[in-house]
Each structure stands twice: as C-alpha cells, then as structure tokens.
Amino acid sequence: MLTEEEKQYALKKYVEFLQHPSISATCEGIRETASWLKEFMEELGIKATIEETGGHPVVYGEANNGGDKTLLVYNHYDVQPVDPLNEWKYPPFSATIENGYIYGRGASDNKGVLIARLIAFSKYKGNLNFKFLVEGEEEIGSVNLPNYVERKKPKADAVIMEGAGLDIRGRPMIVLGVKGLLYVQLTVRTASRDIHSSNAPIVYNPVWELIKILNEIYDGERVKLKGFYNDIEPLSDEMKELIAKLDIDMEELRKSLGAYKLKSDIRALYTEPTCNIDGIYSGYVGRGSKTIVPAYAFAKIDFRLVPNQDPKKVFSSLLEVVKDRAEVEVFGMEKPVRTSPNAKVVKAMINSAKKVYLLDPVIIPNSAGTQPMGVFYDLGIREIVSAIGVGTPSSNAHAPNENVKLENFYKAIEHAYEFFNEYSSV
C-alpha cells in the first residue's frame, strides 16, 4: 500500500507531467516535455538521456540493479491534439482534479501509466534491471521508432508496453499481443482538373475506377488479395480457451461503440484480419449540385493483421492488384505479435494483478488494435505484454475531457511495484 506521502508525491508529478503540452502532431511542447521527463527520471536514480531519432526525441533510461534479468519498459510522452476545444470541461493541460478524478490530455493515454511505473520503480528494492524507452511519436504512428530501435538494439528479457487499463467491470486487462497494420492511401487521377459532366461519355471518372479497384481488394466478407489468408497462425487450444473466458456482453459492447448492429462475435475482434476503408473522397461534396467529372478520387484503407501475416507481403499483393491504375502511399506498416500465456512475464503479471485488485485479470490474446510491439519482437524478445494501465472505457482517451480516477492511478502504482517483484523472482 502507498503511504499518504507517497500518494502526494506521485500526484504532484502526475499533475506536472500533464501540465506540459506534448502534441506530436503539431510539435507543441515536445522538447520541453522530453527535458522534464529526463530530469524526473534522473531524480529517481535512472541514468537518462535524450536521444535523437530524426523526428521527436526518445527519452531513454537505464538502471542496473545487478540482477540476471532485464525488463524493458516502453511508454510514450506524446499526446493527441485537443480538438474540439469547446467540448472540454476544463483546459486540456490544466490537470484539474475534481471528485476524485484528474482531467487532462494524456491522463489515461499515456502519461498516467508512465508516472505510475516510474513511481513504482522508485519504491522497488530488488535486483531486476530496467531499461526505459519513452518515445514522442506514438500518436503519429511511431514513424522513427523502428530505425531508432534497430540502431540502439536494447537487450532485454521482456517488454511491458503502455498499459491496457481496466475493463468496464473494473478488472485489470493483460493483453498478450497486437494486431499488425498496413495503412495505405490509393489515389486515382484521370485528369489535371475537374471536367464538365457533359463530357462523361468520353472521359474516365476516377470514382468508378477507384470502386473497381476496391472491389478487387475486398468483397464485403473476405479480402481477395493473393495469399492474404495463407500464413495465418492457427489458434492454439490455449488461445481458444482465453477467448472463451472473456465473458464480454456483446450488446453492452455494441452500445458502448455507438454501432447500430454488430456483424460478428467477439472472437473475430481479436483473431481475424480486416480490410477497412477509413475515408473516401472525390469531387463536389457541398450543398446543392455541381455537375462535374472529378479529376481524382482517393481512399484511405487499413488492414489489421493477425500473427504470421506479414504487412510487407500483403503490400506486395496489393500492388499486384493496383498495378499502374492508382498511386499508393504507405502511412503505416507494423507486424502482428502474440506472446504465449505461459511466458514468465505473463505469469508475473497475472499474480501481481490478483494481489492488488483481488480479482482475476482479463487475459486477451491480442488487442484489436496496434502498438509498436513488432520492433521489439524483431530484436528477438519473445515476452511482450501490455498491462498496468490507469484508464477505463470511460476515460475518454483521444477525446475531450480525458480523465482518470485517482484510485486507479494509485492502484496502477501498486500493480507495477508488485509486478517488478514477481517478475524478478518468477
């Protein structure tokens, strides 16, 4: 348990961190926040440096306690933009506390998680070695992280990613992996400018050409790219058992998503790859009419991938379909990763969660989304999990009025502390 003095110190640092804007999309406050974080890590006895990446810097730290195990702790100090500003109850970087909650951009994703882990580290007295890698570009796709990690090659026995938080019932979640990602934009251009629609009989319309390509990629049920499903790793009995235990109310989930209806069960969310159109645009979309044949049309598409699918292979198959009919831009490419439920880091995470929350944690084979786990997997690290979060589904991560219940922040500190002890001895 934390003493009142420890709680006050942790909250003071949490507030300070939140009051430093660090919006990676606009660069606001990035360098200042990285400097603050480096100084705080040094205050806790971590040997910290600010390291350049070609973009926003990484704050990297090490603490050698003389043990034979090393834990790499990954987090990010950057946050999402605050728009729409008029929907915030309090200024987004005020770190306002009200009725046991703290409000501010980054409170849940990811500054509260990082502060909780650092405070837990300051309490830890064992011989586990630590490496801290805190990037400043997670919210813009970790664009420079792969090259940085490839150069740095930090060695570790296990990695804990930014925290997965608590579910709607207050149970701690332990996520064993992530889906991979291929994010592209397809642009079809058929003219140098918009053309009067009376010329439609003799000119190509880029929208219809784009629709043809999209229909060759996905038929509404299955992805049609060559070999897309060939490499998918079959679900083990252990993974099937984990999914069966998830106990998720699908109607409750539907309502929380604001969806009118769901098209599949919970198993698909975690184990099936997807092809999704994020946005599509062309021509005149204002009020009234404007009779034109547009000059261009584009669609943004993301593929979420499951273990053994390779985003590079999927991209190659996509290019075979598109050929020279469209321009292709890549905005994201990350590998899917899944850690064995029998890994030491998982066992330690489960045991420590039970101690602190007095509840069985929810173990998820992999998230439905993506984190940069693959860059650490490529280093040969096979024990990678996401856990020890401070947020809940109502924390409004990425939205106005992002918030965290202070009780959950303090619990995360206790969980991290117990996990460090469990992992060092497991």
List keywords for this structure.
alpha+beta; Aminopeptidase; 6-stranded mixed sheet; 426 residues; 2 domains; 4-stranded antiparallel sheet; 12 helices; Alpha-Beta Plaits; globular
Structure characterization notes:
Strand 1 and strand 2 (58-63) form a beta hairpin. The chain has twelve helices and 19 strands. Helices cover 32% and strands 22% of the residues. It has helices spanning 4-18, 30-43, 107-123, 145-152, 206-217, 237-244, 250-257, 266-271, 311-322, 344-357, 374-377, 406-425, and strands at 47-51, 58-63, 70-76, 96-98, 101-103, 129-135, 158-161, 173-175, 177-178, 180-189, 195-196, 274-282, 292-293, 296-305, 327-334, 337-338, 362-364, 384-386, 403-405. Helix 3 (107-123) crosses helix 12 and helix 10 crosses helix 12 (406-425). The strands form six sheets. The chain has a six-stranded mixed sheet, with helices on one face. A four-stranded antiparallel sheet has the order 12-14-10-15. The chain folds into two domains: 4-178 and 337-425, Aminopeptidase (3-Layer(aba) Sandwich); 180-232 and 273-334, Alpha-Beta Plaits (2-Layer Sandwich). By secondary structure, it is an alpha+beta fold. Keywords: Hydrolase, Metal-binding, Protease. Residues 177-327 form the Peptidase M20 dimerisation domain. InterPro entries: Cyt/Met_Dipeptidase, Peptidase_M20, Peptidase_M20_dimer. It holds the Pfam family M20_dimer. This is Acetylornithine deacetylase/succinyl-diaminopimelate desuccinylase-like protein.
